[in-house]
Amino acid sequence: MNIQFISMQLFNGLILGSIYVILSLGLTIIFGMLGIINFAHGAFYMFGAFVAYTIVAYLIPNFWVALIVGPIVMALFGAACEAFLLRRLYNLPPLYIMLFTFGLMLVLQDFIRMVFGAAGVPFRTPSSLDGSINLGFMFYPKYRIFLIIITSFCSLGVWLFLSKTKLGAIIRAGTDNSIMVDALGINISRIFTFVFGMGIGLAGLAGVLAAPLQNVSHLMGVDFLVDCFVVVVVGGMGSISGSIVGGLIVGEIIAFGVMVWPPMAQTLIYIFMAAFLLIRPRGLFGREAFHE
Amino acid sequence: MGKTIQFMAVVALIFGLIVSPAFSAETLKIATLTDMSGPYAELAGWGNINAAKMAIEDFGGKVLGMDIEYVYRDHQCKADLANQKAIELYEKEKADVIFDSPNSAAGLAVSNQALLYKKLYFAVTSGTTRYTGDLCNRYTFHWAYNDYVLATAAGIWAADNLGKKWYTITADYAWGHDLLKYFSAALQKRGGTLLGNEMVPLGASDFSPFIIKAMNAKPEVLALLNAGKDTVNSTKQAVEFGVRKTTKIVHALLFPSDIKAAGPEVFADNYVTASWDWKVDQPGSKEFVARWMKKFGSPPNWFNAGNYSCVTQYLLAVKRAGSKDPRAVVKALEGYRFSDFFASPGYVRPEDHKRVGKAYILRAKKPSEIKEPWDYFQIVGVVPAEQAYQDVKEVGCKMGDF
Amino acid sequence: MNKGPWSKQKIILVSAALLLAIIFPLVAPYVALASEILIFALFAMAFDLMLGYAGMLSFGHAAFFGLGAYSAGLILKNVYPSVPLALLAGVIASSLAGFIIGFLSIRRRGIYFTMVTLAFAQMFYFIAFKWTGLTGGDDGLQRVPRPSLGPLDLKSQIVFYYFLLFSVVVCAVILFRVVNSPFGKTLQAQRENRNRAMSIGYNVDKFKLRAFVLSAFFSGLAGGFYALLLNFVPLNSLHWTNSGEVVVMTITGGMGTLFGPALGAVCIILLRDIISNFTESWTFIMGILFMGAVLGFRGGIIGILRSKLGLSI
Predict the structure, then answer these.
(1) What are phi and psi of B125, to 5 degrees?
(2) How far apart are the C-alpha atoms of B376 and B290, rounded to whole Å?
(3) Would you state the pLDDT for residue B300?
(4) pLDDT (tens digit, 9 = 90+) per residue, B191-222?
(5) DSSP codes, A161-208
(6) Torsional class of B9: left (φ above 0), alpha (ψ -120 to 50), beta (otherwise)
(7) CB contact under 8 A, A110 and C110
(8) Which of A74, B1, B34, B65 would you call most buried, defined as having the most Cβ atoms within 10 angstroms of its Cβ?
(9) How many angstroms away from the CA of C101 is the closest CA of chain B?
(10) Residues B347, B385: contact at Cβ < 8 Å?
(11) What residues 129-188 of chain C have any CB closer than 8 A to a CB of chain B?
(12) Cβ of B83 and C230 within 8 Å?
């Protein structure tokens, strides 16, 4: 174990963490604003990767186009799901929405399997990002560096949007007290649709970004989903900074855990999650929850 | 009150409609239990069903004066479902024999049911050596390949031809550990050295730390002892980190569907073992492939071919035995030497019920070398049966009675 | 026509259900499927105790089911081939796990509770996966024998079915009495309004823990039966998606009714078997059905029967 290796690991943890960050940002925004635990989040991530594949393979063979169009398509899809389906469940206990998203997950996954098959589809790194750069102390793949940069911009963007814009202020207010916001005359249901769409758009973005690194198949979101829950619990449900910090922490735990104590690395995550839930359920940055 | 009775009548009617009587005269019933909607659907699924159907058709649809009936079921790559479907096939459908069952856990469960119902099971698409090892039984046969062959054939050939300094990246569970054991043994036989091994949790999405560690040891060959999604992920990332510039990659398992799923440029110039390939030039092979392609449009993979061969040899054994009684058929197969387009030659070992034969070494082609669809592999070597298959004495099978 | 819990209508319906259950092996696609339906009906009823009556969604029940299955299987294989001993081991293991996990998790409510149970279940799954020497790992626990129980030759699928039917009916009666007892009523009271229940003086957490352990007990029993049915224990019985299947059965059947989830198990497993003989897309169909159940007929099948047909079950 030398400095080069450790720093390489640090970076790899950041990569994994970055995907988690974007995925969890979506999950946490949806939870914070709408109180929904979206079991279908991993499935939307997977769907985003397939939308990108469809664009690149059948429409315009350009990764950058897919990177921009993919998340937008997913955001619209998410907004449609909220407007036509989820909205009908708001007057029910949150259990029902959670269960509904579980069913949605099954449907999305099997739909993709029916259309694209079970083996998966090919997705390459864009040629402009092929190869590695010499960072001085190590060689590192260009695409991964790009991933870290994009994720940072994205997180910054989401944070700025929520804290500096008027719409962002409304969303934050709605997270705190949606009834009050409604009473102030703001169309809260449109905000809900927007926020859900945004969360799903982020999931789709994570899917497109991860596609060149992974096997793009209908089940690629299943493992990520549970890990995402871990991130959101550790970071704090509903907290943006929580998602960012939590995502990076979990990414690093996996990266180092797998080096240090391989047999138990996976279990380590769940022990971590259980520990947080039992000792400090609000996570690192969450607000003290009603449920505690 | 009236409504209650109405409701009950409807329920009774619905239940009545579910009744499915199994009408049986003296027929031979062949069943395929395979994965039609899970991860192996493209690999096994309809291909293996079609293979069995074609074998029955080619045989004439009858044997010993009995009509041959055929059924198939989907176990979705779930072991518990496979168990239940095996019970359904043996008990309700009165199947005499089950073929296939991808996924070793599922296959072992079917093998156990075969023992309990005293009927036959031929494992084709799954590779666990336990069928013919600690869990062997008189009613189970293992036809197309097994994990020992995958590791040993590739290990021997690659040590002779690619390099003697190896590093392995292994999926961290029983299957991976077995492969590692076999690979290391093969390597040792040829004077190679294992520089190191990385155990990777199953389903890990990030292989980069392991790849980096492996490359630091500067091996001549990197062996990826994993399958399916892990193979795709690890190879994609190995390419990303420039492994191919200095090192050759050998796979434990690599299927045409993996190559199609990830794209041939990911796997170009990698090596793997196979029992058969559609480009192989042995007697009967090209004709079989031509007929298959005419019927189904794309070439058969070695599981399809294995199923066809297996069903045909079963029917021939029934004929030789003069009866469909499982015990007679088993005796007609034990020690049988034959030659068909798939196994040329083939031999059914009585001690453990393995069909042994030679193993091919395949190289995945570069995209520029691919001249037609599915033309993913080039055959570069052959490993004879005595070297590829494990010695009978080491197998650990205590073949009981019937 | 409603005179107490045992109206004439109810008696007729329950008798009809029993009659159907007795002739079921003759009409079911195959007998082992009928047995599987009974096992999951028991599992769903145990689960409903938590979800429908205590109002707590646990995604960890697969751990109790799986523990029951593995314990029973290991006893049958390695200790002594005795059905009562194996089932006893199964329920002890699952109840113990239920107590420990329950004790730790009960203090959390809502989604936090769900997440903790999920985390614990995943831990059990990975331990079983890695501990190949004990559990068989990915291959599962193979070659579990099904010995006779006294004069009953359980190896016959039909005999095993009737043994299961008897056992499950006994369990159902026990569970029915539990939910209609003062204990059960208190459970439902705290589900409706925790603070009010506490202000009356009930130690709500104690009730929840007892319910959890009871639920784990019967889940483990179902698991033990499952090991006997399959003659093997698949690793997947511990995976959280197994919990998901039970959730689907409970909701589609109608949670909080005990009989509903059992009915849900019947329908889901029958449908799965029939539909997957025609198409590979059963998961898609089940997902749509489930979403429909949540969106549309929230009371599940029982709800439909109650409102559309005026039945009072």
Answers:
(1) -85, -15
(2) 17
(3) 94
(4) 999 999 998 887 777 888 889 889 888 999 99
(5) HHHHSHHHHHHHHHHH-HHHHHHTT--HHHHHHHHHHHHHHHHHHHHH
(6) alpha
(7) no
(8) B34
(9) 26
(10) yes
(11) 129-130, 132, 137-140, 142-143, 155, 157
(12) yes
